[in-house]
Amino acid sequence: MIKIESLAAIPFFADFSAEELNGVATMMTERVYRPGEIIFLEGQAADGLFFVASGRVRVYKTSPSGKEQALCLMTPRTCFGGCPIFDGHYSPVTAQAVDEVVAYLLPREIAVERARDNPALSRAVLRIFAGRLTHLTTVVDGLSFKCVTERIAEKLLAYADERGQATERGVEVHLDLTQEKLASLVGCAREVVTRSLLRLERLGAIDARGRHVVIIDREKLIQFA
To answer: Which helix (H) or strand (E) holds 71?
Structure first.
């Protein structure tokens, strides 16, 4: 059985009592996915609500021509897969493990049944959907009103805040996503990512060597973001 302490660390379960957490834990299953493994496909029926215990999950749309547009990168203690559970439709996105992922699954039938008479679960679901709406509004804003260089600068700053290492030269960041995956996150082709990184280098904001980036001048980078 999944440990109650593990669920209590997930914001979704913030309003749950110990008794409620224990009840939910008995109904959930743990799943492990290899790097690159598909968790579910766009157009597939929903298994339930997924909660990331460790690793990262890339959630994206695919166009008829095969072009991918990443919508979000799910990190530990976040949840995904909720949209088709309550509207009865198929999944509108694909979810893929970036690293080795451990996820907890709350089956669809149980989530729907419990949401009817459990105020804590209903509030948690509303928070999730409100957060998704806010996030997607931000994605649309970036794609509509920011150029690719600005979106790249924004991602680099986010990486620096999350996992950057301060050095004498600046803040070192290791991009553990390929340029192709980074391009998907910012909504462009891989070649455009390369050109944008070169532009930021020429302007003295960064020094990029493959996946290794040093933010030399944070203020310049902020100006572009």
So the answer is: strand 68-74
What sign for the dihedral angle of Cα 193, 194, 199, 202? Answer: positive
Instruction: Find the distance separating the first CA and the last CA of the chain, reported in whole Å.
Output: 44
pLDDT of residue 104: 96
Cβ-contact 143, 187 below 8 angstroms:
yes
Which residues lie closer than 8 Å to 181 by C-beta, 6 or more apart? 58, 70, 98
pLDDT for 88 equals 66
Q: How many CB atoms lie within 10 A of CB 170?
A: 20
pLDDT, tens digit, 9 for 90 and up, residues 119-131: 777 788 778 778 7
Dihedral angle, C-alpha 32, 38, 43, 47, nearest 10 °: 0
For residue 46, give the DSSP letter.
P
Nearest partner of 173 among 211, 222, 220, 205, judged by Cα = 211
**Cα atoms in the 13 Å half-sphere on the side-chain side of 132:** 15
Q: Report which DSSP code applies to 17.
A: -
Other C-beta atoms closer than 10 Å to the C-beta of 126 total 11
- Tokens representing 215 are 């933010």
Q: Which domains does the chain have, with CATH numbers?
A: 4-144 (2.60.120.10), 146-224 (1.10.10.10)
Query: What is this structure's pTM?
Result: 0.71
